[in-house]
Design goal:
Shape: globular
Strand order of the largest sheet: 3-2-1-4-12-11-5
Helix content: 40-55%
Number of strands: 12
Structural class: alpha/beta
Radius of gyration: 21 Å
Length: about 325
């Protein structure tokens, strides 16, 4: 199975991306990886890692889409950029199952839609990160920014795709919830009320509304929302966690007594930090396009890249695209 990797996307590209690909190959003998980017630079990094494998292919792409580029313009004009060449390879080769990139989110999303196209009957693709929960599990939040404005049908499709994704990742009967301003059925906008009824009448395991404060409690597996609300929810969670850890660190360093106390708390604090490290859960899938696309965080390093490649392998092995396609077709009947 081939996984295509954008070797020049991300804050620490290309070294960390290439190193992550090498780690993934070492862990999984069934993997084949296609690294897309400047061939000379990739080869130089591989030599420094002392790694040679017939399961690793390099496709030359001398250009890069930057964060300053307008995504739609870049995808159409930067024909030799790593992300465009990666999508072209993915589309043209049947044995290429997925794409992994830590580059521009806008370019990754735009490229997926323009180059691969949507799955039949899917009204909108959705960006769907997995967030760590208090019970050491994960919850999918979708959409998280691909669609700022949505219709009820879009959210129903998000729920169907999220359900199939979590099943592919080993959750037998995913619990689906709708992000809302209250748990009561009558709460929310007219569109949200409409979605509630659609989910309630579907064959999904819909458990009702959920408030943002409960998203990380581990009581549900999929939280459905429009892209605007999802992105606000995600950024609020990230910002709150960052502020709290910063405040705790500041207090621990404030006096000799707190520094001594911090020594006893150090192991516990490290464990909490690891528990809520989003990188351990891999990349955020873009659900609803013709092949598997996983978007890593821009500051991802080798371990995160390797985990995301393995995530892509698992999803492809479980035939995620086929399952989503069939689930949506069944819903349309």
């Amino acid at each position: 199975m081939k996984i295509v990797v954008d070797a020049f996307g991300g804050d620490f590209a290309p070294y960390e991306i290439v190193a992550g690909a090498v780690k993934a190959l070492q862990k999984n003998e069934k993997l084949n990886i296609v690294l897309v980017g400047d061939k000379d630079k990739i080869t130089e990094i591989l030599q420094s890692l002392v790694f040679v494998s017939d399961r690793l292919e390099i496709v030359h792409a001398p250009d890069v889409v930057t964060m300053d580029d307008i995504p739609t313009v870049a995808i159409r004009t930067k024909k030799t950029s790593s992300i465009v060449v990666a999508y072209d390879y993915l589309k043209q080769n049947d044995d290429a199952e997925a794409l992994v990139s830590a580059g521009s989110t806008g370019a990754t999303l735009t490229g997926a839609v323009l180059k691969l196209g949507r799955i039949k009957n899917i009204s909108r693709p959705a960006l769907a990160p997995i967030l760590p929960t208090v019970n050491d599990g994960g919850v999918m939040l979708l959409d998280c920014g691909a669609n700022a404005e949505c219709k009820a049908e879009n959210l129903l499709h998000f729920a169907i795709m999220g359900n199939e994704y979590m099943r592919a990742m080993g959750v037998k009967k995913p619990r689906i919830a709708l992000l809302n301003i209250g748990t009561e059925e009558e709460k929310g906008s007219e569109m949200i009320k409409e979605v509630y009824q659609m989910l309630k009448n579907s064959k999904l395991n819909f458990v009702g509304n959920i408030e943002a404060r409960d998203v990380l409690r581990g009581t549900v597996d999929v939280v459905v929302c429009d892209g605007f609300s999802g992105n606000v929810c995600l950024k609020t969670i990230e910002g709150t966690a960052e502020i709290l850890f910063g405040e705790i660190k500041s207090v621990m360093k404030s006096s000799l007594k707190t520094k001594i106390g911090a020594l006893f708390l150090k192991k516990g604090m490290v464990n909490i930090k690891k528990k809520y490290d989003y990188r351990k859960l891999g990349g955020a899938p873009l659900l609803g396009v013709q092949k598997i696309v996983l978007k890593c965080h821009g500051n991802s390093k080798a371990d995160s890249i390797a985990s995301t490649i393995e995530q892509a392998y698992q999803l492809a092995s479980n035939k995620l695209i086929d399952k989503v396609t069939k689930a949506v077709e069944k819903n349309e009947e």
